[in-house]
Every structure is written in structure tokens, then in C-alpha cells.
């Protein structure tokens, strides 16, 4: 509307300037009159009624178990792949450090709830540590202390009117299961389903929104370029086995919830999907960009969210051709059986979207190597991902381009048949300094895109800032932070202090305006 009015005024003034020489005096009056009309319309239609988030829209913040809890060895807790990795190869963490204590949320959860209250949140998304709840990795032993910890957190949130959004698994597999191959072993489907059944039976009475598995793409592919445990140097096979197993595990857990819990608890399940928006660098790169969408977005979403299910057809063929050319006797991406296609298809009640940034996509030039993401996209697909010169680049993988988020939301809405999109992560990595005006601008500009998409009819029901507070950011350690609150990691009390962005976000949640 504003743009439309501006165009009218611009056209009017262009027209007026042409006849200015003839009717200078009357024109001045008309121009002034035009400005008055414009101002009245502008204030009348848009100025006094800025877009607002509806009262049912849920504002939240997120964290994950290993990144905040600490207390890695209290009580009967088992060892996770992160405990194992940071203790056996401490040199891989930038600046040193590990999650042994992290934010000490295992002890300071009351303060975490208080922060959610200070922010005026409707939801708090956290994850359950598999090895804290099931020390052996299997449901033969359920830890009393683990159970109590999550019960306290859930009840404490509900007491303050904050809805828990719970991630069943967020990157911290029990080491006992990793020793048997972890996500590359198809038996993980049953291990995960058993674990999820314990989680739903203990907490399902109080939780509506479930995320079964966080960012399967990063879970499977983040082992190369090596920024996640188990830190395997196996880019070729493991990630494709994981790709299939993770989808089937999610689906089995979803079907199990249907059978055992849905009629009682009527919760909403999904897995959270990390999407980058890909923009072709030139019109010639459009085809390769489509393939990139299938490689990144489609490979993890198409089997669940599309009408036909299964792998994206063009991509599956492309990957099978690659494998054949490289001398493999089977495609490295394991095919689905038709039973598996049916099992996996439709196992969602909403779409949990995690979006951070956009990338420009083009074909690698002969002899060129992708500096970042050496394999994601590059060797397999011959693709390089970069920033656009006009975007505000924050580091080598992250640029601020809010329009890309809007495009992503529209793409999602039109590509799959979705009744509900819930943003389960969105945030910006900055240094640990306390001043974060750039973070304010990031959240403001990305929320603005949500507001516009909402008013265009994209069914977005919630927004979750990543992250509630500074925490252990995987192999980046404590050198890169996404927190609305800063945490003093040298203080035994792990004092949390609201940043400018926390104050800004609290204003947004209260006024429902930007
Ligand atoms: C737990 O780990 C810490 C190091 O983070 C260590 O100091 C402590 O002795 C360990 N406690 C037990 C009971 O093993
Ligand atoms: C969202 O998707 C629906 C169903 O495909 C379509 O009718 C609608 O126009 C889309 N809205 C936007 C804003 O993309
Ligand atoms: C962090 O805590 C330590 C120990 O309590 C204290 O000496 C230091 O001043 C604190 N740093 C900040 C920035 O508050
Ligand atoms: C929050 O809102 C108050 C009152 O409108 C305003 O004074 C303050 O500057 C806002 N803070 C931020 C960080 O936007």
C-alpha cells in the first residue's frame, strides 16, 4: 500500500514537473495538495495501523541439552558422543572449552525459566539428553534424576504460562550407540523409537509441540566438513546411510505416537528442518540451483512432506549416476522400498522450519574448490555457495538477507501442503561481546518478513529465536554466540545478562509489533 501510494505521488510529481513551466503557481498548490492527500492516506491506512502479530502467534526462544545443561557426569548420566569427543580430542574446539559445565542449566533451570518470563515468551524450546534419561542408551534403565530434571523444567515453565516445545534428539547421541555405528546403523530406527516412547510416556501429558530430531541435514552431513561429533572423516557413505535412517527413525517414532499416545495427548509432531535459501548467481545457474534445493531441502523434506513421497526423483537419479561413474556397485543414497515410502510419507503435523541465511549458488569453475562446505554441494554436485556482495556478510557461511527468508516461506508454502509452519530456530552468530545492535536488526528484519508473509496468507504460527542465551556452540566452542542473553562463562554462577536484543525481543513479544 505504502509503495503504491509512493508511486502515485512520484508519477504525479513527474507529471507536474513537466507542465511546471506553464502553470507554476497553480502547480505548486496542486503539488502541496497532493502531498496533503498522500499524508492523510498514508497515516490513515498504514501509519496508525502497523502490522501486528496476532495474539495466537507464539513467540519463543530455544536451546539444546548438550549446549546448556553441563552436569555431564552427575548421577547416573551416560556418556554422549559430545562428552566423548571433547574429552578425547579437546583440540578440535575453537578457543578450547567443552560442555562439561556450559551454562550449568542442569542446576540453574529456574533462572532459565525466569529469563523466558522476562522475555515474555509463549514457548521455550529445549531438548532432552538421551544419555541423561537413558544412561545405557536403551530403555532398560530410566534415570530418576534425569526424569526429575525434565519434569521440573516442564512444570516450572507451565506454572509461568510458558509452553514447552520439546526436541527429543538434538545432536547428542549416547556414545554406546555410536560405538555400534550410530546413525549409519539401520538398527538406530528401533533404538530411537524406544527412546522416543519413553520420552512421550513420561512427558507427553504436558507437551503439545514435539520435534523428534533436530536438523537431520546437519546431523548427517555436519560430520563433514567436520563440525559435529562423531567427527568422522567419511564424507561418501555414512551421511547417505544416515540420511535414510534418520527419516525412517522419525517416521517410526511418529507412527508409534499415533498408536500409543495421540488419542490421549493429541500432540503435534515434526522434525526440524534447516533450510538455506538458494539464489542463482546468474540466470544460467537456475537449473543447478533447483538441483541444490533438491540436494539440501528435498533430500530431507520430500520423503515426508511431498504428496508422492520418496527421494526427489531427479536428484536420486543424479546421485545414482555419480555413484556409478565413481565405480560403486550400489547408489550411495540407499533407495526406499515402497513400504518405506508409505511409512515415511505424511509423518508430520506441522513444519518446523529453521532458517538462518541465504546463499548465492553457481557451478564450480574448472579447478576451483569450495573453501567452505568442501563436500556439501561441492564435490558431489559441482556447486559453490557464496554471499551476494550486497548482503551484509557476517562470516564465511552467514549473510543477512531477510528477503531470502520471505522467499523461503513462500517456497515452502507452495511446495508442500502445509497447514502450519512453526519457525523453531532463527538467529545470528556474533562475537561474545555484549553489544548486539546487529542482532536486533537481524531479528527485526527477519520478523518483518514473517509478518508480511503471514498477511499474505502463509500459515506461520510461531517464531523461536536461536538462542535464549550464549552456550557451547559445538566446535566453535564459546567463540561464536547467538544468545539474547550473554553468559559469563568464567563466573561459577554462570551469570546471565540480557543483551540489547533481549530487551528488543521483550518489547516485540509484549507489543506484538516490530
Ligand atoms: C565430573 O567431571 C568433572 C570435570 O568436568 C570432574 O572434575 C569431576 O571429578 C567429575 N565427577 C565425577 C563424579 O566423576
Ligand atoms: C500458499 O499456498 C496455498 C496452497 O498452495 C496457495 O493457495 C496460496 O496462494 C499460497 N500463499 C502464498 C502467500 O504463497
Ligand atoms: C565474570 O565473572 C568473573 C568471576 O566472577 C568476574 O571476575 C568478571 O568480572 C565477570 N565478567 C563480566 C564481564 O562481568
Ligand atoms: C522497548 O520499548 C521501550 C518503550 O517503548 C523503549 O523505550 C525502548 O527503547 C525499547 N527498547 C528496545 C531495545 O527496543
TrEMBL record:
<keyword id="KW-0326">Glycosidase</keyword>
<comment type="subunit">
    <text>Homodimer.</text>
</comment>
<dbReference type="InterPro" id="IPR017853">
    <property type="entry name" value="GH"/>
</dbReference>
<dbReference type="GO" id="GO:0008422">
    <property type="term" value="F:beta-glucosidase activity"/>
</dbReference>
<protein>
    <submittedName>
        <fullName>Myrosinase 1-like</fullName>
    </submittedName>
</protein>
<keyword id="KW-0325">Glycoprotein</keyword>
<dbReference type="InterPro" id="IPR033132">
    <property type="entry name" value="GH_1_N_CS"/>
</dbReference>
<dbReference type="InterPro" id="IPR001360">
    <property type="entry name" value="Glyco_hydro_1"/>
</dbReference>
<comment type="similarity">
    <text>Belongs to the glycosyl hydrolase 1 family.</text>
</comment>
<dbReference type="GO" id="GO:0005975">
    <property type="term" value="P:carbohydrate metabolic process"/>
</dbReference>
<dbReference type="Pfam" id="PF00232">
    <property type="entry name" value="Glyco_hydro_1"/>
</dbReference>
<keyword id="KW-0378">Hydrolase</keyword>
Amino acid at each position: 500500500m505504502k509503495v503504491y501510494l509512493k508511486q502515485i505521488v512520484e508519477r504525479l510529481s513527474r507529471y507536474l514537473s513537466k507542465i511546471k513551466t506553464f502553470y507554476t503557481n497553480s502547480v505548486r498548490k496542486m503539488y502541496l495538495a497532493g502531498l496533503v492527500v498522500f499524508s492523510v492516506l498514508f497515516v490513515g491506512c498504514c501509519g496508525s495501523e502497523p502490522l501486528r502479530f496476532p495474539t495466537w502467534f507464539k513467540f519463543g526462544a530455544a536451546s539444546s541439552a548438550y549446549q546448556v545443561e553441563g552436569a555431564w557426569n552427575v548421577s547416573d548420566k551416560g556418556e554422549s558422543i559430545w562428552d566423548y569427543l571433547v574429552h578425547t580430542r579437546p583440540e578440535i574446539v575453537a578457543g578450547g572449552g567443552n560442555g562439561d559445565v556450559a551454562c550449568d542449566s542442569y542446576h540453574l533451570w529456574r533462572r532459565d525459566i525466569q529469563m523466558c518470563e522476562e522475555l515474555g515468551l509463549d514457548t521455550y524450546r529445549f531438548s532432552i539428553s538421551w544419555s541423561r534419561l537413558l544412561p545405557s542408551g536403551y530403555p532398560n534403565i530410566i534415570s530418576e534424576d534425569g526424569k526429575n530434571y525434565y519434569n521440573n523444567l516442564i512444570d516450572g515453565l507451565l506454572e509461568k504460562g510458558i509452553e514447552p516445545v520439546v526436541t527429543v534428539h538434538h545432536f547428542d547421541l549416547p556414545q554406546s550407540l555410536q560405538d555400534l555405528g550410530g546413525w549409519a546403523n539401520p538398527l538406530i530406527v528401533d533404538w530411537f523409537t524406544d527412546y522416543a516412547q519413553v520420552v512421550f510416556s513420561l512427558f507427553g501429558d504436558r507437551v503439545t509441540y514435539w520435534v523428534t530430531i533436530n536438523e537431520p541435514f546437519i546431523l548427517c552431513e555436519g560430520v563433514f566438513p567436520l563440525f559435529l561429533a562423531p567427527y568422522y572423516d567419511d564424507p561418501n557413505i555414512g551421511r547417505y546411510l544416515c540420511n535414510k535412517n534418520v527419516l525412517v527413525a522419525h517416521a517410526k517414532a511418529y507412527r508409534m505416537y499415533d498408536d500409543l499416545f495421540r488419542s490421549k495427548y493429541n500432540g503435534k509432531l515434526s522434525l526440524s528442518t534447516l533450510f538455506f535459501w538458494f539464489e542463482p548467481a546468474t540466470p544460467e545457474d537456475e537449473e543447478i540451483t533447483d538441483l541444490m534445493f533438491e540436494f539440501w531441502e528435498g533430500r530431507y523434506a520430500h520423503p515426508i512432506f511431498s504428496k508422492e513421497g520418496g527421494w526427489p526423483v531427479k536428484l536420486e537419479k543424479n546421485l545414482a549416476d555419480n555413484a556409478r561413474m565413481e565405480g560403486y556397485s550400489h547408489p550411495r543414497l540407499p533407495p526406499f522400498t515402497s513400504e518405506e515410502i508409505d511409512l515415511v510419507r505424511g509423518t508430520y503435523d506441522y513444519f518446523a522450519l529453521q532458517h538462518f541465511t541465504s546463499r548465492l549458488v553457481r557451478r564450480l569453475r574448472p579447478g576451483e574448490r569450495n573453501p567452505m562446505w568442501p563436500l556439501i554441494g561441492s564435490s558431489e554436485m559441482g556447486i559453490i555457495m557464496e554471499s551476494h556482495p550486497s548482503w551484509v556478510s557476517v562470516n564465511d557461511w552467514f549473510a543477512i538477507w531477510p528477503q531470502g527468508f520471505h522467499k523461503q516461506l513462500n517456497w515452502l508454502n507452495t511446495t508442500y501442503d502445509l497447514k502450519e509452519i512453526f519457525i523453531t530456530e532463527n538467529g545470528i552468530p556474533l562475537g561474545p561481546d555484549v553489544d548486539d545492535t546487529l542482532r536486533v536488526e537481524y531479528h527485526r528484519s527477519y520478523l518483518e518478513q514473517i509478518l508480511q508473509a503471514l498477511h499474505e496468507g502463509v500459515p506461520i504460527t510461531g517464531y523461536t529465536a536461536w538462542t535464549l542465551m550464549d552456550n557451547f556452540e559445538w566446535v566453535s566452542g564459546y567463540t561464536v554466540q547467538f544468545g539474547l542473553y550473554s553468559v559469563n562463562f568464567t563466573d561459577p554462577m554462570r551469570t546471565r545478562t540480557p543483551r540489547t536484543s533481549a530487551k528488543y525481543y521483550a518489547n516485540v513479544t509484549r507489543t506484538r509489533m516490530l
